[in-house]
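Final report, Chapter 2: Outcomes

The project's central promise was a pipeline that accepts a single protein chain and returns its three-dimensional structure in a standardized token representation, suitable for archiving and comparison. That pipeline is now operational. To close this chapter, we reproduce one record exactly as it appears in the project archive, with the input sequence first and the structure output second.
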Amino acid sequence: MKSLRLILSNPRYFGPAWVFASLNILFGTWAIYIPTVKEALAIDKSQLGFAIFFLSLGVFTVFPIASTIINRLGVGKATWYGVLLSCAAAILPLLAPSYYTLMAGLFVFGASNGFTDIAMNTLVTEVEKEDNQNFMSAAHGFFSLGGVLAGLGSFLIGPLDNPVLHMGGAIVLVLVVNIIFHSKFKNVVAAVVEKEGFSLKLFKPLLLLGLISFIAMGSEGAIVDWSGLYLKEISIAPEALWGAGFLGFQITMMVGRFLGDGISAKIGSIKMVALGTLLVIAGYALVLSTNTYFAIIGFALSGLGFSVMIPEVFRIGGNVKGIESSQGVAFIAGSGYAGFLCAPPLLGKIADSSSLITCFWILLFTALFILFSTFILEQKRRKS
């Protein structure tokens, strides 16, 4: 809670945290209108899925060049420009008059969000270094808060009956708050790194961190996509409880991120990832019991575990010796997005040929791999 109080009491920390919320307010507002866009353009689910692929494609396209642009602009200015780009791009998919312009709009939206994502995580990493404060996890909590705000905005769908007007309101909210607070972070510049000569050994920590990010975000995507179906088909839950696993997962994700920085400051990032993984493993065990109420608790417990994992991996990656913070963040973010994109459909094929229970056994074993990886990371930390 200390980091949350820090953010709410100091504009220097609230400004970057609000960028996190901004990104999910914009994305979440787009997401609630996906069915409306599908109906307006008269496209089927397959076409919609292919169009949404361009959102991910935009994110991946910007990753290789993002760190270079961020370092040239300065991470503070890059974050502010990223917010402006994301606000401008957010309206494009809802204005699309055709299927092909929808794909183009989503590509631009994805690229803008990807750039802002890397910039804002690098910004928090640098502010943490300058001030010797931990608030990365709480900043990610604000990302979750942005999703909650976007979800509450869904109640405006009926009264407004206008997707473009609704998104316009979200953009105004994001812009007004950012205009007030961006001066508190716009002059932050990433510290110059004295780079060692090229060595594969130098990049080993990033490779392992990237794999952890891939697994963690892929697992998050799987829970988001399948928790309801698991409760319906495997746990035979009543219809009123089909969304309970997802809701529990989202709530604990937000709460865990607001609490995570204080614990991380005491035990360190690597132990924090290990602790989060133990919670995830316990959560999967409850889910695999197939009992409805145990499964719901299991999804919530998994959310608590995953809530601290990605922020801590970003924090570790932004502080790897000899690697610029923006490069470390970009690599880990790219790995995570790849997992979020690839894992659900890959596991979906397994579910088709076997069952959802098999999928969650696989997710349990990948969590065990993350736990094993934390021991390797801790050994490397002690040697360095």
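Archive annotation: The chain has two domains: 2-184, 200-383.
This record, like all others produced under the grant, will remain available to the consortium after the project formally closes.
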